[in-house]
Fold each of these.
Amino acid sequence: MGFRPLIPNSADRGAQMRQYDPARPPAASGKAGDFVLYLEGAGDRAIVGGWCKRLLPALAASLSRSTVILGGRQPARAVEHFRALGGAEAGCRALCLLDRDDGRSSEPEDPEPGLEFYTWGRRHIESYLLVPAAIRRGMGLEDSDGRVARALRPHIPPRGDDEAWRDLDAKRLLGRRGPVARTVGAPVPLARVARATRASELHEDVHTCFSRLRGVFGIVEATVVR
């Protein structure tokens, strides 16, 4: 498929998740076939990794090693880092995933060849984890345990209310002090919830994002573990 992560396996465990550092740009240009996935934070990496194990299991490890953490919603940092690698002229490709937050534009005004941006339709990436059955499975609860559904019911907008979903603060709902954690008495393991979410339960935005990834890898049809 011509895919090669920018950081190969090595004894340096810190290389498994790279943090953007403007004071330490990449030491060398990228190579043809290199791919970078830019994410806002470590939590995003855990969630995308969980979905990848479900939707693109064969590439989960490689995609994780190719992730660069921007340290916030910083699309300009992705452009700077990508250019330092040599960009499209060096044969590199990249995708930057961003939360919608307050609805600001996700992309710099001038397009960067080889670097694509994808902004989630909802406020936070965590919004796509608000599937009670998947949360229940991710937390290791019995199928008959209705606590998660009851805890979320007052907070979840109707299915067709896109505006309410865009404004919903999912980080709060799934946080340590959120209604689910308080009701169950344990924190919500976001990566496990992402992995436990079945393909049929994933929102169209998530499938669209992974379609973009499949296009980069030249995959016609993903192997989905249901």
Note: The chain is about 35% helix and 10% strand.
Amino acid sequence: MVLIALFATATLSFADQTVALRVQVPAATNVVYATGPFNSWSTYATPMTKVQDSPKIFEAEITVPDNVGGDYQYKFLAGPSWDYQQSNPSGDFTYGTDGWDGAVVNSFAQYLTPVNIQVNVKVPKTTHYCYITGNFVNWEEPKKEMTFVDEVADGKNYTYTVLNFDPSVLEFKFASGPKWKYEQTQSANFSYSGNGGANNEVSVVCTGFKDIYELGNITVNIISYPSGTDSIYLVGNFFGPDWNINEAIPAVKNYDGTFTAVIYNVADVEYKCWKRKDWAYEECLADGSSLPENRKATYRDTPTVNITVERWNLPTGIESVKFDHPISITDNKIMVSGVQSLVNVYNMNGQVIQSFKGKGDFTSRVLPSGFYILQVDNSRAKVIVD
């Protein structure tokens, strides 16, 4: 009965699936775009890849509901606008009739011959970098860096070549960095046809950006931290959007007892501190709760940051870890036999209260009743002194 109930619940929601959509087209076809509910009927969001020449077949991966119905519709274009839509047949294909690989288009209204389009822009002199996005990349976050040409009295010139696109439908905009927060202040998009493009080249002027992207080194000083801290690491989005504990930046301990870490060649970052290169040792607030948000720094505004770590999280709930060393607790003392390299005794605030390095047996000093984290060589466990 439980299994039946779980199955009934599971069937109420459906995951998406990725399928390969294929179409056979005339030999004169140079490019193919797929359109349908999977991309909100966009004419340029799903360019297809040629996978066969004779007959000519194009393919693209699309995401559709796992429970897609037989009446699911889609169609194809020989260019990134409705001017190039299929004409024979003119109606939509359906999953129930054609599946994902049974579509055949005998002709299109027009056939695009893609060209390379040179986009030139003049930006304010305060700009350090210039990026471009547009319908040629489905308006993705600005990632295409433009090439610096020269600096003139009233600005800086950059250029970028859009490959294999239709000039008549090209739209684009600029950013001073690789995120939307750096996009241009002008609300309207630029376009090839609307900005005097000719001979596959268009030149425009961008008057400003919402923020200026500027790279440099951010220095983080950890001026206060829990006693017993022997190492600190910074983990964040320094090397990409994903946080990787294996790419943690180690902080160096200074003569005055503070720690310093330098994040090189960044504009703005989010990060936190860890006591070890281990997700379990994340910093937290004094009461043990998580930081309400990531730490943030911007090179242009705060190239040097002084922070305080109030407390470390330590692994808990691992009482069942099997040690290779006998452990006993007598008279409020923890005793360990057969130590190979080290012993650390932590309180629940993450502070080292006693440490031993060497081989042999270890006996702690008399400890107040309570919970402790015991590290012996490479093993850890939570122990209770009572």
Note: The chain has four domains: 2-108, 115-205, 216-312, 327-385.
Amino acid sequence: MQRQRTGELIRLGDGPSLEVLKRSILARRPGRTWEDLITGPGLDPEQVRSAIREGLKQNYRALSGIENWAMTLTAYKPKTPAESAAAEVIRQRVQSWPKGREGSIVLWGEDNGPGKTHLGVAYAIAVLDLPRPYSVRWWRAADLFHGLELGRFDEESPVMEETRQCRLLVLDDLDKLNLSGNRQQWGLETLYRIVDARDHRDLATCVTTQLPREGRGSLREMFGRAITDRLPAHWWTRVAGPSGRAKT
């Protein structure tokens, strides 16, 4: 019995959240509390807590959506002062984590390939690598909305709930969303629900885009005030430089 219980505790992190798993374990043991389980005879509470932390960290990494784990802050090689400054902002966000919505950042710049995506992924990886486990989700914005359209998941699915509730959400290439024609109203409402939910829950959001916040050809012109007001000006950091994709 003790071996089975210990195994269940060590496997925490296989599911979407600690709370869901705790409820699942406790449901099979009426009248017991979580403290009963982690302080039972023969169990070292600190070892159990350590196993829980590591299980959650592995779970959050598996659910993060990150495609290229080589895109770390260490691997980012700035070529311009603007790129160096943007990388330093990310480092400061990680060092002072968690900061709620003030951990948010919008990485923008008209240039193709100066590393906005790399920095967004690096931010996500750095938070996942912190000693305490935090839930992180990286999305290519067009893929998120394409998945919704195809019915791979819906507004009430665990995928969308995770997108609205994870501690850090990275939306890559937000300006690449195609919300024209009969998709526009649906797309704007969906995006608003995401950013508004995160704003109310005081959660960090990282956006990458080639468009400025205001003016002609801006995110405000594309998405409207209700959305861009939830991406305030002090979050915006410009990333300008030559393309890292260029062949030498």
Note: Confidence is low (pLDDT under 50) at residues 1-16.
